[in-house]
Amino acid sequence: MGLEAVVLAVGGAFLSSFLNVLFDRMASPQFLNLLKQQKLKRDLWQSLEMLR
User: Fold this and answer.
1) pLDDT in tens, 1-52
2) How far is residue 8 from each of residues 3, 5, 12, 13, 41, measured CA to CA in Å?
3) Could you tell me if 9 and 2 are in contact, meaning their C-beta atoms sit under 8 angstroms apart?
4) Contact (Cβ atoms closer than 8 angstroms) between residue 25 and residue 31
5) What is the DSSP code string of 1-52?
6) How far apart are alpha carbons 42 and 33 in whole angstroms?
7) pTM, whole model, 2 decimals?
8) Which residues, in sequence order, are CB contacts of 31 under 8 Å at separation 6+?
9) 21-29 long-range CB contacts below 8 Å, 24 or more apart?
């Protein structure tokens, strides 16, 4: 196994770990609540803009 293959394997392992943590945090209840709040704020602003 050459150096390039080792570097690719190690890089792939780090990338996989990073993506697992990222997706776990994105699926957390706190993050999902934040997204819902942002959507509600955006919807409210759009409704207020229509009243102008």
Assistant:
1) 689 999 999 999 999 999 999 888 888 888 888 888 888 888 878 887 888 7
2) 9, 5, 6, 9, 44
3) no
4) yes
5) --HHHHHHHHHHHHHHHHHHHHHHHHTSHHHHHHHHHHHHHHHHHHHHHHH-
6) 14
7) 0.48
8) 25
9) none
Side chain identity, residue 39: K
CA atoms within 13 A on the CB side of 11: 6
Q: CA dihedral defined by 6, 11, 17, 20, rounded to 10 degrees?
A: -120
> What tokens were used for 11?
């890089």
Q: Which residue has the tokens 């792939």?
A: 12
Length of the chain: 52
The Cα 45–Cα 21 span in angstroms is 33
